[in-house]
Amino acid sequence: MTIATAAGEAKVAVDGRTNPRFLLVLTHGAAGGVEAADLLAVRRTAVELGGAVARVLQPYRVAGGRAPGSAVKQDEAWLAIIADLRKRFRKVPLIQGGRSNGARVACRTAQATGAVGVVALAFPLHPPGKPELSRAGELRSAGVEVVVINGDRDPFGVPDPADATLVHVIAGEGHSFKKGVGEIASVVEPWLVRWSAE
């Protein structure tokens, strides 16, 4: 389906139950898409636990862009997308997340959307080679529990354990999680179960 925002249309694929235990909304990295292996692993786990999962291709990607542009505009579009999805899934807990830039969006907007938690995959702590430009504040200011899963070889860095509720590091992985999706699923599963019971 498509959802209109001030930044253009977003494309949303919804999987899972029509009367779910929770709604999980996921989005992609800056130049990526919603078929990334880590996103699919989290989606599969959530559906198996009785959730509904909405994978969002953001408006700038639908329009063919590779850079997300202004964080303010991106967050405004995300809030519109979540508001539309909440009309369809009214009374269940909302969990949001994404990989890389999508994880940043999920953290920045968590309080405004009323999310109960965030799943942050490959959170880009800083631009490659520029650790002084830390984005740890986005994790700390999410206002909800945040589960971070990063590879220990990620050139964007690995958040400190103090920056989130849980920081799980996968050995031998970079930014794109070429392996280890089973480990991602096993880390996320208990959090999805607990959040869905709130």
Question: Could you explain the architecture of this structure?
Answer:
GO terms for molecular function: hydrolase activity. InterPro entries: AB_hydrolase_fold, KANL3/Tex30_Abhydrolase, NSL3/Tex30. This is Alpha/beta hydrolase. Residues 22-178 form the KANL3/Tex30 alpha/beta hydrolase-like domain. The chain is an alpha/beta fold. It has a single domain (2-196), classed as Alpha/Beta hydrolase fold, catalytic domain (Rossmann fold, 3-Layer(aba) Sandwich). The chain is built from 6 helices and 8 strands, in the order βββαβααβαβαββα. It has an 8-stranded mixed sheet with strand order 1-2-4-3-5-6-7-8, with helices on both faces. α1 (37-48) crosses α6 (181-196) and α3 packs across α4.
- The shape, in one word, is globular
Q: Report the total helices.
A: 6
Q: What count of structural domains?
A: 1
Using the coordinates shown, work out and report the CATH topology.
Rossmann fold
Key traits:
KANL3/Tex30_Abhydrolase; 6 helices; single chain; hydrolase activity; Alpha/beta hydrolase; Rossmann fold; alpha/beta; 198 residues; AB_hydrolase_fold; NSL3/Tex30
Secondary structure: elements and pairs:
Blueprint: E1 2-5, E2 8-16, E3 23-27, H1 37-48, E4 52-57, H2 59-62, H3 71-88, E5 94-99, H4 101-113, E6 117-121, H5 136-140, E7 145-151, E8 166-170, H6 181-196
Parallel strand pairs: 3-4, 3-5, 5-6, 6-7, 7-8
Antiparallel strand pairs: 1-2, 2-4
Helix pairs in contact: 1-6, 3-4
